[in-house]
Amino acid sequence: MAYVPTKVKLDAGNDTLSILWADGHASVYSYRDLRDRCPCATCTEGGESQRQPSGLLPMLGVKALKPERAELVGRYALQIYWNDGHSTGIYSFDYLRSLCSCPQCELARQVSRPDL
């Protein structure tokens, strides 16, 4: 299924990206979760265990992780430019929707994969 956003909002005060989808569903993603789940080849090379966490010691003066900007890529994705210099991840709308962690989406995943 192709998911289409009607509104995308970076909310620096809450460190979240919010998306309102055409089907009326609303998703909220933390900046940290999105950066840690970057789908680019560099971040995913070697599988999940090889992903590098963003900002290992934020309490030691490392600036807070946040997007500097986000741009639409055609009609299918969002490219996020992070303040850590990373910008090669293209987050397809389908991928973003699959990352939604709201109770409704979590339940739908459990129903579709009952063995988990």
Would you kindly provide a brief summary of this structure?
This protein has helices at residues 31-36, 41-44, 93-99, 103-112; strands at 5-11, 16-21, 26-30, 67-73, 77-82, 90-92.
How would the blueprint of this fold be written?
Layout: E1 5-11, E2 16-21, E3 26-30, H1 31-36, H2 41-44, E4 67-73, E5 77-82, E6 90-92, H3 93-99, H4 103-112
Antiparallel strand pairs: 1-2, 2-3, 4-5, 5-6
Describe the structure.
The chain is of the alpha+beta class. It has one domain (5-52, 64-112): NE0471 N-terminal domain-like, CATH 3.30.2020.30. Helices cover 23% and strands 29% of the residues. A three-stranded antiparallel β-sheet has the order 1-2-3. A three-stranded antiparallel β-sheet has the order 4-5-6. Strand 4 and strand 5 form a beta hairpin. The relative contact order is 0.20.
For the secondary structure, the number of strands is 6
Number of domains: 1
**What structural class is derived from the secondary structure elements?**
alpha+beta
Distance, first to last CA: 22 Å
What is the string of helix and strand elements?
Answer: EEEHHEEEHH
Helix content: 10-25%
Q: What is the second-level CATH architecture?
A: 2-Layer Sandwich
Strand order of the largest sheet: 1-2-3
Estimate the strand proportion: 25-35%
Q: Which spans have pLDDT < 50 for at least 5 consecutive residues? A: 48-52
The CATH topology corresponds to NE0471 N-terminal domain-like
| Largest β-sheet summary | 3 strands, antiparallel
Shape: globular
Helix count? 4
